[in-house]
Amino acid sequence: MTPVESILQSLAQADDDPATKILRDHLRGIVRLGLMKTMAAEVEPLCGPKDSPDTTKEFREAGSEPGAVFVNGGKQKVTRPRVRIHDGQEVTLESYRAASDQRGLFETVVEAVGAGMPVRGVERCHGGAVKRTQASQMWIEASREWLATLRERSLAAGCWLALWIDGVHLGSEHCVIVAIGLHADGRKEVLDFESGASESAEVCRLLLKRLNQRGFAPPPGRRLLVIRDAAKALKKAVSQMWPDAVQQERLEHAERVTLAKLRHRAKGETVRLFRRLLVAQGAAATTEAFEALLAHVARHNDDAAACLKERREELLGFHRLNVSAELNKIFLSTNMIENLVRNLRLEIGSRNLRSPSRQAPPP
């Protein structure tokens, strides 16, 4: 198995992780946009521009209709443009044929775009299927163009209140750091991601530096809330970029690490005490809940207790802001962004299938 194939296999097998699902879903949305752009680009040479169709051509537009592409072994609905010969016979677009007839090709394009693979790399992973039509290569390149637009657009106009950063580990040799921003109006948005051999300080620094260069910053006079996992590299990179940021470690990550160190008989109470900490309101209640958790864990495993004690500030950062406990579940995990791509999917549904020159960049 080649290194590229290993990365793709790891990404496919890591779907249970919330951050992995977010990354894959977002890339799927980008690839859907790429497919629509590719179909539009295929129609125009056949029929002429949408606003001034060429009546001398052999082909003509025939509206659009529901279609389907293969995703994760099943079919997903898309809207496809229709083209007919003037005698009424319908012509199937090569780009749609590639997406609807070749099982697994959609996912292969998703993974190719995410990994930045060359077309020849996709050929190896799909038995040469991508090379069979120019449309498939156009699809990959169109998707990469959408992705580049996403990663290069300015973020300066946003009123950013929080930033989620999470590492997606693809086996032992590859990691993707995903960044998600929270607008003041509650909208969530995938901002960027950075891949590397590990969740290193340099990979994290490059990601945050690029966000900063694109204008990402908290509102004047406010501190940025950063929700992250326990990686020391993330903590270091955030501290360097925004020294006064409030850093909050994901509680479900701390719970998972703690439970892994405990015997079965101690786990039930540990879970209950983590839930108590999750819903605690105010500094006093939070401190009391944490001390109860720490005392219970210390009775069963010194190492687990030491880890909790060392990470105390990061585990209680959000609680000390004294906001409503109703917000705890939103801000103390990354699971709240599992429906993050909803806006992107709505945007996909409203695209003009025939006019890529007038299409706006993805949200």
Question: Any chance you could write out the topology, listing elements then pairs?
Answer:
Layout: H1 3-13, H2 18-47, E1 59-71, E2 74-85, E3 90-91, H3 94-101, H4 105-115, H5 119-125, H6 134-152, E4 160-170, E5 174-183, E6 188-196, H7 201-213, E7 225-228, H8 232-241, E8 246-249, H9 251-260, H10 264-279, H11 282-298, H12 302-310, H13 312-315, H14 328-331, H15 342-349
Care to give the gist of this entry?
With 363 residues, this protein is an alpha/beta fold. It is built from 15 helices and eight strands. A hairpin with a 4-residue loop joins strand 2 and strand 3.
Care to describe what's here?
This protein has 363 residues and is an alpha/beta fold. The chain folds into three domains: 150 residues, no CATH class; 112 residues, 2-Layer Sandwich (Nucleotidyltransferase, domain 5), CATH 3.30.420; 82 residues, no CATH class. 49% of the residues lie in helices and 18% in strands. The strands form two sheets. It has a five-stranded mixed sheet, sandwiched between helices. A three-stranded antiparallel sheet has the order 1-2-3. Strand 2 and strand 3 form a beta hairpin. The radius of gyration is 24 Å and the shape is elongated.
